[in-house]
Sequence to fold (133 residues):
Amino acid sequence: MVQLETIAERSISALKEYGAEGITSSVLAEELKIPRRRIYDIIAVLRAAGLIHTKRESKGTKIRWKASLKENDSGSKLPAAQSGTGVRAANQVKINSKKIRITPSGIITSINNKGVEVIIESTDKGYRIENID
Fold:
């Protein structure tokens, strides 16, 4: 099974290659040889972080890369910070929003609200995160 982080890296590379023309989610899934639902997980996070443009079309969702990548001190590539958008670091995505919707791939098994953070556990890996401000 391919890790979601690896799928994200491969997706970002493909999106950057297609540039302003973009690519549909179904073509991206075919090219990367991964299930379309994993592409939707990646799209949700990248869209919430403000790194891509998406548009529904008759042949599927068209995805266009809009962020630039820069290398950090460790040499890994992270999205450059943009005013009013999300910032990704390691296994975190910061979303500048007062309200988000989180949809797991599986069934929610536990929610722990600590006042300053919420920990959500699910039966499966993978979450879709949407900015709903």
User: Anything to note?
Assistant: The longest helix spans residues 4-18. The first strand starts at residue 23 and ends at 24.
